[in-house]
User: Which sequence fits this backbone?
């Protein structure tokens, strides 16, 4: 379901992921009006912050967590990519770009 480009993998492993942390794909609907309107984001959380509502997805290189109820917001095939020139990540599917400029947010 999710693949991570080599550029994104390199950036995540070199500068972002830490021991006991995991990347979580989240669909943020807060402040977007309707509950179906939102924006995909990437959050860095500690593995001990995962809940029973989270599912770990094995990708081609790194695990990614997604809350079970949020699967409906994402296409079946996703790619997390990285653009060095803007220092941002992108979330893409074969049919669309879901977010072209994602900064990874750290869970407070």
Assistant:
């Amino acid at each position: 379901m999710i693949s991570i480009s080599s550029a994104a993998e390199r950036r995540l492993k070199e500068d972002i992921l830490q021991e006991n942390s995991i990347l979580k794909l989240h669909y943020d609907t807060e402040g977007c009006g309707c509950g179906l309107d939102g924006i995909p984001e990437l959050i860095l959380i500690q593995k001990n912050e995962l809940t029973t509502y989270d599912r770990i997805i094995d990708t081609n290189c790194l695990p990614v967590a997604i809350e079970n109820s949020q699967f409906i917001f994402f296409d079946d095939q996703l790619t997390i990519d990285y653009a060095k020139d803007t220092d941002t990540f992108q979330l893409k599917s074969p049919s669309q770009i879901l977010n072209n400029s994602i900064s990874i947010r750290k869970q407070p």
